Amino acid sequence: MISKTPNFTGWRAVILAEEDGNTEKLRRQLSLLGIASLLQWLPLPANDLPELIIVDADRGWDELLPWPERRPARPVAALLGSEAPGRIAWAIGCGAGSIIPKPVAASTVYPALVLAVSAHERRLEEEGRIAKLEERLRLRPIVFAAINRLKAERQLDDEQAYAILRDCAMQRRMLIEQLAALFIGGSEGLREVG
Amino acid sequence: MQDTVKIGILYSTTGPYGAMGRDARNGAEFAFHEYATAGRTRVQPVFFDPHADLSAYVEGARSLIRDSGCRHIVGTITSAARKEVLPLVEKHDGLLWYMCPYEGFEANENVIYIGGCPNQHLIPLFEHLIPRYGARPYLVGANYVWGWEMNRLARELIANAGGTVLGERYLPLEETAVERIIADIAEKRPSFVLNNLIGPSSYAFLEAMHALGQRDPAFLPENCPVASCDLQECELDEVADGAAIGQLCAASYFDTLDSLENRAFKARLGEFKPELGRVSSIFASAYTAVSICIAAIEGSGTDDPSSVRGDVLSRTWPGLFGDMAIDPATNHAALPFLLGRINAERGFDVIASRPPLAADPYLTGTSARREPWLRVVP
Fold it and tell me: Quick one: B5-115+257-336 is in which CATH superfamily?
């Protein structure tokens, strides 16, 4: 549930579209939300990104957005009139978190921005979490090696060896992977247990 | 001889918010009466009553637009009804004149908003209540968008004030079984109650809070007031005698408002229909919406909505709400804030006021928050 009222005051948005009645309506709505908008029908330079991007997905082409497919550097909302799967796929590909249907109705703009920003934030959080998990996964062989060494040195079974590692990691407030690396490296003797 | 121009009047005079609909319709009628009294006949009303049936609002709007040729519709009380009618009004590029206090988060070019949004009612109300009674309120509301969104914003305001919301409960429209909520309030002992219930639920709640105050003085209005943003004079007749005395309501107009305009208005109203008695902000804003619509049609010489809108936005409209201006960016009226306390005559005594505040329907620049939510991490 949204507890804070979403507020876009002072944000900049680039609308990647050609000027028409839709962009006019869109820009009116953006301006009353406190967003300064710029309209362009040229690729977006990667070195000066606004807080928000709205792209015409009916006519957009790949080079419009300066990031790899599905890896948007900013929240994206897609202007879309077409129902063609290829155009919807293009909108997904450029990282759109929401759609502003054409013809633009005033009431669709604010919800689309809130959704796009929220989807973008969630994606950034998930990417961060996945990166951490991948790092831990990469260190799994070290945990495996540490368990094997503990088993051999102290005549333990798998579960007992793992429990020692886990408990020591908890006591030292570190990840089990980090502790295992220290143990294998020889700088951590795990002396108080076993 | 110019063609007759029709304005659609779309109010439900029955159902849970029927009292408001009747008051709004009366306000519209009074505006047309004054127009006719001035010897003018070009602009005429067409009334449609959807009888609180949401789908009938669309039928009504369609009939007003297609069959009667209305390009302006004054009407709807609830946001649900406004949202039903709006796509049709947009499609025909008409103008909807909406004049009720609502929860904000809308600014449509095809609507002129003459009711208030939260920065004009709820936020100043809380700025009044929190320093006086504390920041530990209990929130009640009707189980639809008005109640939900008003209470959501109330939570945000309370969080910003470092307070705690002690409870939040909802009742379906027309539900009058308030005992469990009252028991919860009696147990939690809030510093005040925000009442976003509407119609019969609200009346039952006020009566039950009165009974609670009789049992325990901590819940008398002077200690734990029940405050709302939508209670109208026309509704106070439906509350048991004396039960609502001392409770609070925010509005942009009260019948008792002591201003030159209101005294003259009340005098004219007394000559029109003395039986109307006390009128509400709903009456005043429907009257104002119709009066401005007529004046702008006459002023621009056409009922073309974009010409009328241009005329409306280009000048100020002196009247019951002061020297009212409508913001061209949002199409919302600047409105005064009045805090009324219910008196023994089933009216409101104005106990606090602020000069007209510009509407901020998306709360882009108010003190509602300390820091922006939704900050993008690069």
Answer: Response regulator (3.40.50.2300)
- The answer to whether B26 and B276 have CB atoms below 8 angstroms apart is yes
Measure CB to CB from residue B376 to each of A3, A75, A107 and give the nearest one. A75
**Boundary of a domain, candidates A132, A157, A175:** A132
d(CA B298, CA B304): 11
User: A110–B105: do the CB atoms touch at under 8 Å?
Assistant: yes
Domain pair B5-115+257-336 / B122-255+338-357, same fold: yes
Is the ipTM of this structure higher than 0.85? no
What tokens were used for A38? 């710029």
* Domain B122-255+338-357, CATH number (from 3.10.560.10, 3.30.70.20, 3.30.1330.10, 3.40.50.2300): 3.40.50.2300
Task: For A25-84, write each residue's pLDDT tens digit.
Answer: 999 999 999 999 999 999 999 999 999 999 999 999 999 999 999 899 999 999 999 999
**Count of A–B CB contacts within 8 Å?**
72
**Dist. CA B320–CA B289, nearest whole Å:** 11
What pLDDT, in 10s, does the model give residues B211-251? 999 999 999 999 999 999 999 998 999 999 999 999 999 99
Structure-block tokens of residue A190: 């795990």
Distance between CA atoms of residues A113 and A30, nearest Å: 10
- Could you write out the DSSP letters of every residue in B114-138? -S--TTTTHHHHHHHHHHHH-S--E
Stated pTM of the model: 0.87
Q: What six digits make up the tokens of B162?
A: 């470092």
The CA distance from B165 to B156, in Å, is 10
Residues near B228 by beta carbon (within 8 Å), at least 6 away in sequence: B194, B195, B196, B197, B202, B247, B248, B249, B250
Distance from CA of B159 to the nearest CA of A (A): 9
Name the nearest CA neighbour of B169 among B144, B138, B145: B138
Structural domain that includes position A126: 12-132
- Work out whether the CA dihedral B323, B324, B328, B329 comes out positive or negative: positive
Structure tokens at A34: 């406190």
pLDDT above 90 covers what percent of chain B? Answer: 91
Taking only the tens place, the pLDDT of each residue in B356-372 is 999 999 999 853 443 43
Question: Cβ–Cβ contacts within 10 Å for residue A69, how many?
Answer: 12
- In DSSP terms, which residues pair with B338 in a beta bridge? B251, B353
Residue B238: exposed, middle, or buried by beta-carbon count in 10 A (0-12, 13-18, 19+)? middle
Number of domains in chain A: 2
Q: What pLDDT does residue B375 have?
A: 41
Residue of A nearest to B365 (CA): A9
The C-alpha atoms of residue A176 and residue A41 are separated, in whole angstroms, by 51
Cα A120 to Cα A98: distance, rounded to the nearest angstrom: 10
Instruction: Report the residue from B83, B329, B374 with minimal CB separation from A32.
Output: B329
Beta carbons of B117 and B332 less than 8 angstroms apart: yes
In a shared domain, residues A21 and A101 = yes
The dihedral region occupied by B355, where left means phi > 0, alpha psi between -120 and 50, and beta the remainder, is: beta
